[in-house]
């Protein structure tokens, strides 16, 4: 049986969702980036079920979602650089990886046994309402089977995990459309572990040039498996024109012959919001191969290219 889908704007649905979480259940929660699958961060059994339902490797830690600075500080210690970033970008699509506090209300499994935790304060009113109603931190990976395309609508969640979870809160399409930017903070330096919904340029205006994860291998995001965000179809990137049998996913004007377009006006914010839904749509239309036009690297283009590269990577 598929989980009920209820409007996230309904106060009674939020109260019911919080009650399900208190009993150790799993609730799909809209955020501004993608839909997350929420569980009580402190409940080891609920977290174990969450890993099982997603088919997620247990060495890949979860992001702890908080209602604000105060709740974050029950979990992690924030050096001044982290506080500046919270001031500038929270609530919003920025996850900060920080030293875990010994008495953090987060099960060992959720942090994959690391001495750090990723924390994020989502901007979406539905996520904020749910965390507030629950009163404590929620872990929430993207609400899709591990390795597949992340969900940006309640319908996507229902298709991937509907029969294995307890409730889906529906708030329509996610406005940002790619996951949060993940930054590790090491003293006064910031390391980019995953490009995402907050563009590098905005962060660098605060931090100066970011270090890259490759130069800091031990800190690299354990979740950055090479093949990820993958549709069923094979992807060919930076394609000028499609070959016979390929769908053509275009970017920008002047490509009338395309099967779909990430953004006809060449807007990277619009392209990010469309990316995962269009990959799913081309899968549903039965294409076995997708040629993708080049997408510029500025702004959200870095996150879009990261997801496309992983979606195109060789699979096991
Ligand atoms: O936008 C998002 O971040 C969404 C929404 C639902 O909030 N969540 C999300 O979660 O994308 P997930 O589990 O799909 O991705 C979490 C990423 C993974 O790459 C994971 O390895 C990394 O964050 N991460 C979490 N905790 C970490 C830690 N302590 N150290 C390094 N990387 C960490
Ligand atoms: Mg994910």
Automatic annotation (TrEMBL):
<dbReference type="InterPro" id="IPR050156">
    <property type="entry name" value="TC-AMP_synthase_SUA5"/>
</dbReference>
<keyword id="KW-0808">Transferase</keyword>
<dbReference type="InterPro" id="IPR017945">
    <property type="entry name" value="DHBP_synth_RibB-like_a/b_dom"/>
</dbReference>
<dbReference type="Pfam" id="PF03481">
    <property type="entry name" value="Sua5_C"/>
</dbReference>
<keyword id="KW-0547">Nucleotide-binding</keyword>
<comment type="function">
    <text>Required for the formation of a threonylcarbamoyl group on adenosine at position 37 (t(6)A37) in tRNAs that read codons beginning with adenine.</text>
</comment>
<feature type="domain" description="YrdC-like">
    <location>
        <begin position="11"/>
        <end position="198"/>
    </location>
</feature>
<dbReference type="InterPro" id="IPR010923">
    <property type="entry name" value="T(6)A37_SUA5"/>
</dbReference>
<dbReference type="GO" id="GO:0061710">
    <property type="term" value="F:L-threonylcarbamoyladenylate synthase"/>
</dbReference>
<dbReference type="InterPro" id="IPR006070">
    <property type="entry name" value="Sua5-like_dom"/>
</dbReference>
<keyword id="KW-0963">Cytoplasm</keyword>
<keyword id="KW-0548">Nucleotidyltransferase</keyword>
<dbReference type="Pfam" id="PF01300">
    <property type="entry name" value="Sua5_yciO_yrdC"/>
</dbReference>
<protein>
    <recommendedName>
        <fullName>Threonylcarbamoyl-AMP synthase</fullName>
        <ecNumber>2.7.7.87</ecNumber>
    </recommendedName>
</protein>
<comment type="similarity">
    <text>Belongs to the SUA5 family.</text>
</comment>
<dbReference type="InterPro" id="IPR038385">
    <property type="entry name" value="Sua5/YwlC_C"/>
</dbReference>
<dbReference type="InterPro" id="IPR005145">
    <property type="entry name" value="Sua5_C"/>
</dbReference>
<keyword id="KW-0067">ATP-binding</keyword>
<keyword id="KW-0819">tRNA processing</keyword>
